[in-house]
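User: Run a structure prediction on this.
Assistant: Running it now.
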Amino acid sequence: MPPSLEDELFPSTPGRFKMERAHTMNRQFHRCFVSTSTMFLWALFLIALTASYLSFQSFMDSGSRYFSASWGGIQWEKQVRNSAQIRRSGGMAVLVTGAAGFVGTHASLALKKRGDGVVGIDNFNSYYDPSLKRARKSLLNNHGILVVEGDVNDGRLLAKLFDAVAFTHVMHLAAQAGVRYAMENPQSYVQSNIAGLVTLLEVCKSANPQPAIVWASSSSVYGLNEEVPFSESDRTDQPASLYAATKKAGEEITHAYNHIYGLSITGLRFFTVYGPWGRPDMAYFSFTRNILQGKSITVYRGKNQVDLARDFTYIDDIVKGCLGSLDTTKRSTGSGGKKRGPAQYRIFNLGNTSPVTVPELVNILERHLKVKAKRNIVDMPGNGDVPFTHANISYAQREFGYKPTTDLQTGLKKFVRWYLSYYGYSRNIVN
C-alpha cells in the first residue's frame, strides 16, 4: 500500500522521525551551504570577469584614443614630425598658431616653400565661415603642412606638440579678430587674445630649448592717437575698442614674460591686411560680395564729414615682414622656465605707408568688378573704429629691410581675381 501523504510527512515512529529529520536538516543545510558557496564563487567569478572586461575595454578605449584621436598617438606624432622637418640649411621649425587663418595660411606656405618645417594649429571657430578656413587647411595639406585642430588655450595639446618637436620658433597668429564684434561677444576676446596668449607663453617658457616668438599685435593699439604716421614709440594707452585693449594687454604680457623668463619676443602691429583668401568680415571683402549681389554697401564717414582712411597692406608684403622678423630673432635666453640673461624684445609696424580713403577703395573695386556700387554714406558710430591709420615703417626697414611693394590698385585686382574664382563667378570681369 503506497504511503499516504501524511505518512510521507510524519513517519509512524517518532524517534526515527527526529533522527531522520535531523539528518535531513543537516543534508539540506549542507546542500544549502554548498549551493550558497557555489553561488558566492560564481558571483566572485562574474565580478572578476566583469572587472576584467571593463579594464580591458578601458585599455582598448585608451589605446584607441591614443592611436586614432584627432591629436595624440604614434601616427599623429609621426605626422607632426614630418611636417616640422627642416629641408634647408640653417632653416627653422615653426609652430604657427591660427594657421588656417588669413595671414597664417600665407605665412605657413611661404615658410614651407623656402624649406622651413611648419606645423599649424587652429580651432576653426565660427566667427566667419569655417568652410573658408577648411579650404585653407586643404591648401596647406596639399603643400605638406599639417594643421592640428585645437585651441591655444589647451595647454596639454601645446605641450604634446613641443614633446614631439623642438620648435625653434613660434609664430602666434591665433586671435579673436574684428573691432565691432567685441561689442557682441567681449568674452571671446579675453579668452583668445589674453588667456590663449598666456597659455602659449607658459608652454614656451617651460620648453627646453625655449623658442623665439613672433606674434601678431595690431595697429588698433594706437587707438585715439593723433600723431601721424603712427610710430612704435607713440603712446598706446588710449584704446578705442576692446579688441585694441586686448592686443595692448598682449604687448604688456609678452614684455613681462620676456623680462622674467628670457623669452625672445617680437610683436607685429599689422595695418589693415587684405588680399586673396582674406577675411569675409573685412570691408573690402564684404564690399565685393555686396556689389556683385547688387546690394548696397555702408560707407562710414568721420567727424566733419571727413572720409575714413586706412593704410591697406597687401598680404604678400605682410608675409615678407613676418619672415623678416623670424629671420632676425635672437635666441631665447631661458631654459626650463629660468632666465639666464636679457632677451630680445621688439615691436614693429607692418604697413604700406600709403593710406587710402574708403571711398577710393570702393572706386577701385567698381573698376575691377565693372559694377557700380550702391553706396549708403553714414556717420561713423561709436563702435571702436578709428578714423585713420598710417604706419611709420622705418624701424622694420632698418632691422630687416622691410619694403612693401604692392599698391592698393594692384592688390585689389589680385583679390578680385581670387574672389571670382573661389566663389565660382564665370564671367570674365577682371582683365
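The longest strand covers residues 117-122.
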